[in-house]
Amino acid sequence: MSVLVTGGAGYIGAHVVRLLQERGEEVIVVDDLSTGSASRIGDAELVEVDLATDEAYRILTDTMIDKDVDAVIHFAAKKQVGESVQRPATYYHQNVGGLANLLRAMYDAGVKEMIFSSSAAVYGLPDVDMVPEDVEKHPINPYGETKLIGEWMMRDCGVAWGLKSVALRYFNAAGTGWTDLEDPAALNLVPIILNRLHAGKTPVVFGDDYDTADGTCVRDYIHVMDLANAHLLALDALRNGNAKHGAYNVGTGTGSSVFEVVDGIREISGWDFPIEVSARREGDPGYLVADSSRIKEDMGFQAQFGLADILQSAWDANQLGSKKVQVPTK
Ligand code: WQD
């Protein structure tokens, strides 16, 4: 019996691979190494293939049969919102086409358990602050659309051939569980701030005129270790038949503003670095926090870490290597 993890060399995937290995599971990683690297997966076997290519279906089917795979955790996908608006067909090809190949292979190999890396992006701009899973979903970019379509594909395979699946809708993943597993893409607020500081540039806050306590956007930042743990709980729930729903939010239920993130980094770094406030970024909801009661109820999930832990771990990982920190000048 083994677990096949697609995108296991990436940011969240590598954390899940390491946790699975720590509890003694046999792990096979499928990754095209376009953003991740083989050094992140320990001694897990690596199958290097892009899921959206023609050859992927056969390679996946053979691997699942050869390795006696009983469950799949699917991370491999493109995840840049802005890029998805510029290149929608690429996003549909990779995220929807790749998943179609994976599901066809699972059907042929008789693999019936699956965890899918979904996103709060499926909600778009919900008109509630604390978002429960069953609000109407109106994604506002192709990235979010591909995640919602992915959920539909798994649901339909459940009806057609008994696939048991759980979509985990991530809120704002941040931090690092092990210092060598930093997010290599660094496209979100925390790594963007740290990278700008390293480059001697001033971090930019996108708008301080929102209807929130300090005027900046509020998000539900969840430590990547908590997020990774949620996958193990979801795998257990699938295996024990305790996954009652097809989709679960993974968040903390607590919001933090951009200014709170900035202040947290100032405290940890010991610098009162300047920031620049720019205009709002298009498509940013002012307040987006998970109602995470469903995953708590069904799977006993409870986040262990808060914003300070997230920022400290991100800071520690970012200090490694040859990067030299400079104080930004305006
Ligand atoms: C967080 C906050 C920005 C950069 C995105 C995806 C979502 C999910 C997580 C994966 C916002 C502000 C940011 C900066 C800033 N991805 N910000 N200055 O947009 O909440 O969510 O990542 O599934 O689907 O949409 O995350 O990290 O880009 O922004 O002020 O330089 O930080 O406006 O309020 P976001 P983010």
Task: Pick out the low-confidence regions.
Answer: none
Gyration radius over CA: 19 Å
Structural class: alpha/beta
Order of SSEs: EHEEHEHHEEHEEHEEEHEEHEEHH
CATH architectural name of the largest domain: 3-Layer(aba) Sandwich
**Biggest beta sheet summary:** 7 strands, parallel
Helix segment tally:
10
Instruction: Give the full name of the CATH homologous superfamily of the largest domain.
Output: NAD(P)-binding Rossmann-like Domain
The molecules bound to the chains, other than polymers, are:
UDP-4-deoxy-4-formamido-beta-L-arabinopyranose
What is the CATH topology classification name of the largest domain? Rossmann fold
CATH class of the largest domain: Alpha Beta
The number of distinct β-strands equals 15
Determine the strand fraction and express it as a percent band: 15-25%
The total number of structural domains is 2
Protein described:
- The strands form four sheets. A seven-stranded parallel β-sheet has the order 3-2-1-4-5-7-12, with helices on both faces. Strands 6-15-10-13 form a four-stranded mixed β-sheet.
- Helix 2 (56-66) packs parallel to helix 4 (88-109).
- The protein is 39% helix and 18% strand.
- The radius of gyration is 19 Å and the shape is globular.
- It folds into two domains: 2-173 and 222-250, NAD(P)-binding Rossmann-like Domain (Rossmann fold, 3-Layer(aba) Sandwich); 174-220 and 252-320, UDP-galactose 4-epimerase, domain 1.
- It has ten helices and 15 strands.
- Bound molecules: UDP-4-deoxy-4-formamido-beta-L-arabinopyranose.
- The site of UDP-4-deoxy-4-formamido-beta-L-arabinopyranose has 18 residues, from helix 6 and strand 9.
